[in-house]
Amino acid sequence: MSGSVLASRRPGGAHPVVLVLLAVGSVQLGGALAATLLPLVGVFGSVALRLGLAALILVAVVRPRVRGRSRSDWAVVLLFALALTAMNLTFYGSLTRLPIGVAVTIEFLGPLALAAVLSRRARDLGAVAAALVGVVLISEALTTPWAELDLVGILLALAAGACWSAYIVLSRHTGARFAGLDGIALCMIIGAVLTLPVGLVTAGSALWTTEALARGLGIALLSSAIPYSLELMALRSLSAGTFGVMLSLEPAAAALAGLLVLGQVLSWVQVGGMALVVVASVLVLGRPTSRGGGTPNADPGDGGHLDSASAG
């Protein structure tokens, strides 16, 4: 890392790069844990547990202000919650069909494409093209017979990426209207309200078992509360470009979490495809930009998080 990044470490505190790496690892461990919850309570049950328990944690810690909000404020946070909820549902749906490393890599096309479109630079568009080649390799579309290719899983991961892009854009609008973590706390509450009824119908009493609640709490902590807090501290002294480079490691972190937690092994061709996506992400997301520039790094302090939190 450059001297400026190293100099950003505050005396007595952890280096901001270390905090972001811990956040990335936390999110992907949460995603791997979610893959073990899905067989117990299904997609809606898993999302309902994650959002519901995360909402309880954030409400207790943040205590978001509800009164005095305008109709436009509520409209923005509602759209934000819909994007977050759809992102989680489609991503968890993809986890039932694809290894987590594959799902996260395909999903990562969403924010990567958004960054390239916003930048309008030929190099960034070329990087996205390279990432598309990487996704083709990691999905095994060239080596797997068409009839055996899990198109539904791939489409769900692509849909999660599109929702992730919408989430990033809406997080900025939410951050402009809600201070601190108020926006994400209210977003989690709305998401929980939207998913809990369906989760109760589809999962039934399994939703309240000790095992499901324990795993749901772990996911809420690993995928939401812990990474939001770590990134909030890191972004006080870390540039957007460096932050983007760190987040570009998410597909690799997901593959490692899948290997360690779920025993999912990727082929060398898939690892090569993942490397293409990671390199493309570093080129696009690691480019220094201003706050309003092309890098879609949402500040958790402003209500957003560029994750598979998200996603994961």
UniProtKB/TrEMBL annotation:
Compartments reported by the entry: Cell membrane
Keywords per UniProt: Cell membrane, Membrane, Transmembrane, Transmembrane helix
Membrane-traversing stretches: 44-62, 74-92, 98-118, 125-146, 152-171, 183-206, 212-230, 242-262, 268-286
Domain EamA: 152-285
Entry GO terms, CC: plasma membrane
Topology in the lipid bilayer: Multi-pass membrane protein
Primary residence: membrane
Region (Disordered): 291-312
InterPro entries: Diverse_Substrate_Transporter, EamA_dom, EmrE-like
Taxonomic superkingdom: Bacteria
Coiled coil location: none
Family assignment from sequence similarity: Belongs to the EamA transporter family.
PANTHER family to which the protein is assigned, alphabetical: INNER MEMBRANE PROTEIN YTFF, OS03G0707200 PROTEIN-RELATED
Name of the protein: Inner membrane transporter RhtA
Native source species: Ornithinimicrobium humiphilum
